[in-house]
Structure formats: C-alpha cells, structure tokens
Specification:
Structural class: alpha/beta
Shape: globular
Strand content: 5-15%
Strand order of the largest sheet: 1-9-6-4-2-3
Radius of gyration: 19 Å
Number of helices: 15
Order of helices and strands: EHEHHEHEHEEEEEHHHHHHHHHH
Bound molecules: nicotinamide-adenine-dinucleotide, zinc ion
Length: 354
C-alpha cells in the first residue's frame, strides 16, 4: 500500500452540554485578536444566537443557507469583514451549523490569508499560506464537514471543493444536544450523506485500511439509527465525523458525482440530491440501495420523484458535464476506464429516471 500522510482534527470536545465550554475554548484566541462567527441563519430562531459567547469587537454573521455556499458569497464575506476591520485579520473563525455554515467558515479562513477569489483554491492542495485557525460547532450531522479537508463551494459552472490541510478545523465541538430538534426530513437527508459517503468509500478502490475501518463503523451506526434498531443522536454525530474522516482516506463515488449535477443545475441541497441519485444506483451499489430504500420507508420520508421531468436539453447537458468533472470519485468507483462504463448516454438515462 502507498504510504500516506494525512492530517486529522487535533482536538475534539465531545458530549452533551459541551457547548457551554465554548467561551473558555475561545480565550486562547482572544489574546491575539477578534473572532468571526459564522452561524446558520436558523440559529436566529433556535436560541443558539443568544448563547454565542461573543465580545464587542467580534463579528457575527448569520448566513442564509437556503442555497448552498457559493464562491461569490465567501469572497464578499471576506471583503466586507476586512473592510469593516481595516484589513485586520481575525484570530479565529467559528462555524456553527450544518455542512453549509461549516464550509463557509473553512473557506473564509483560507481566503483571509490567501489572496484573490476562493475559485483559485478549488481543487487539490492549491492553498499556499496558513489559514486562520478555525473551530466547528456542528448543529446538523452527516456531511462530515467537521472532519474533512474539504470546503465545498458552488461557482458559476461547477460545484467543487477546496481540498487542503488548510481547510481542516483546529477544533471540533460536538454537542449532541445541538442536533435534537432538526426536522425529520432534514435529519434524514443529511444523515444519508454520511451513509452514502461510507458506501462509496467502502466500494471504491481508493480506500485504505484506515478509511475502511472508519467507514465500516459509521455505516453500521447509520443503519442502526435510520433502521431504528438502536443508535441515538450521540451516535449519529460520531458517525458523521467518522464518515467525513473516512473520505480523506478514500473517495466518494457515483452518487456524489451525480448529485453534484442535481445541486448545480436544479439547486437541490446536497443530502437530498444524494438521496435522489442513490435511489437510482442499484446497478452500482446493489448491496446498499435496498437498505437505503428500507430506511426511507421506516423514516417515513417522501423522496421527490420526477425531478428531471421538465428539464431542458441545455440543463441536462450541464448536469452530465458536471458529473464528468468528478473524475477522481468516478475513477475510485469504476476504474480508469470509467467513461466507458458511465457513458454520456448512461448518465443521461439515470438523470431522466430521477
Ligand atoms: P445545510 O448546512 O445546508 O443545512 C440544511 C438546512 O438545515 C438549512 O436550512 C439549515 O438552516 C438547517 N439547520 C441546520 N442546523 C439546524 C438545526 N440545529 N435545527 C434546525 N435546522 C437546522 O445542510 P447539510 O446537509 O449539513 O450541508 C450541506 C452542505 O454541505 C452542502 O453545501 C454540501 O456540498 C456540503 N458538504 C460538505 C462536505 C465537506 O466535507 N466539507 C461533505 C458533504 C457535504
Ligand atoms: Zn456528501
């Protein structure tokens, strides 16, 4: 096996009520500057905004996650913070929310110290300077953004990650109490992101023994939680983390490659887009799609159907092109000759079935 060096999140604070520790954890960073908090806008109504231990000099941004994070959004956020603070950098960025808020926090921490647009860093290991330190406080579990080295951003023609050690959190505060009141559908769709990461990791050729162990455990937890045979929110938080970590030692696969097309062109959120795609991928993941369908039934989820019913040829072409950009996941899933297996025609037919 090829030798690999990989970074991990160096510090995790975990347990019910852990959020109360945040003020103390911030002290270390207060000595060197102000703190920027990125909060999902939902926390204006959940009560979490009032509990943020901010000081007068800090900045709090409630980010609208109706749409997934974009390169323009993080570029503008960086510019407005630096303008307001006379180009003084924060000592810390804290991301509070689901994958969207966490990814905005990650991307922001990178482009605070790396010139130009975030689009320059989408890809693998393109970040030059050390990022601003960052903390994640997940309030939705499944993406694994809290553990991964990716910050996924949508641009004009592609949805793509900043994949770098610089986009990993320095500390993750995991408090299962924060994921207690999520609407059933959202909890399911984001939870399935974790399940699908694990399936794609385990079934892909890019996985190593580390990733396999992480993915296997996370997969088992997801099945317990969503088949309702045991497993609670504490377990789900751990699964999300392990699923995200496993992707660093593997790759995603066909479901993610297709889900990115659904998100880019039709605007479906990641977790839901994954579910819509995965539901049609029995040919590629025959051991898992039936279990997934069972989880849908047990969870009482109404997965949207016919999402491509009225799609234009141009949109369909853009979705096919998006899928084909995902070369790494497709190579891991199907081998070097993936384009002979997943032809344009095949991608097209799969999309039309969704
Ligand atoms: P999200 O962050 O987009 O949030 C979805 C919805 O849940 C939003 O409406 C939000 O307001 C709401 N929400 C969040 N916390 C809540 C709470 N405690 N109670 C009630 N509602 C709450 O959803 P997500 O599925 O976590 O993240 C999706 C994003 O993550 C996508 O942009 C995707 O590309 C990205 N992603 C990143 C990685 C990575 O490794 N960085 C991996 C997978 C997905
Ligand atoms: Zn995902």
């Amino acid at each position: 096996m090829k030798i690999r060096a990989f970074k991990q999140v160096p510090r995790i604070v975990f347990g019910r009520g852990a959020f109360a520790e945040l003020a103390e954890l911030l002290e270390l960073y207060r000595k060197t500057g102000y703190i920027t908090f990125i909060l999902d806008h939902i926390h204006n109504t959940t009560g979490l905004l009032e509990k943020i231990p901010d000081n007068q000099e800090d900045c709090i941004f409630l980010v609208d996650t109706t749409d997934e994070p974009t390169t323009t959004q993080v570029d503008e956020l960086r510019n407005s913070i630096l303008t307001a603070k006379s180009s003084q950098l924060p000592s810390l960025v804290v991301g509070v929310g689901g994958g969207s808020a966490m990814d905005i926090a990650k991307a922001l921490s990178v482009i605070m110290t790396n010139e130009g647009s975030s689009t320059l860093y989408q890809g693998w290991d393109l970040v030059k300077n050390d990022a601003i330190p960052k903390i994640a406080v997940p309030t939705l579990s499944g993406t694994g953004a809290e553990a991964s080295r990716t910050a996924v951003l949508t641009g004009t023609d592609k949805k793509y990650g900043i994949n770098s050690d610089q986009s990993m959190f320095d500390l993750v505060l995991m408090d299962p109490d924060l994921i207690e009141n999520i609407p059933n559908d959202q909890r399911f769709y984001t939870g399935m992101d974790c399940y699908i990461h694990c399936v794609e990791s385990i079934e892909g050729s890019f996985i190593n023994a580390f990733g396999r162990a992480q993915a296997k455990e996370a997969l088992e937890i997801c099945e317990k939680v969503f088949l309702k045979t045991g497993g609670n929110n504490e377990d789900l938080m751990v699964a999300s983390y392990l699923g995200g970590a496993s992707v660093a030692n593997s790759e995603v696969g066909v479901a993610h490659a297709m889900s990115y097309g659904l998100s880019l062109v039709l605007g479906y959120h990641h977790g839901l887009a994954n579910c819509i795609a995965f539901n049609q991928l029995e040919d590629f993941y025959p051991d898992y799609v039936p279990t997934f369908r069972n989880m849908i039934k047990i969870g009482n989820i109404n997965l949207p159907r016919g999402v491509t019913e009225n799609i234009s040829e141009d949109d369909l072409s853009a979705m096919i092109a998006m899928t084909k950009i995902m070369e790494r996941p497709l190579t891991s899933a199907l081998g070097q000759n993936w384009s002979n297996i997943l032809t344009d025609e095949k991608i097209r037919n799969l999309y039309l079935k969704m």
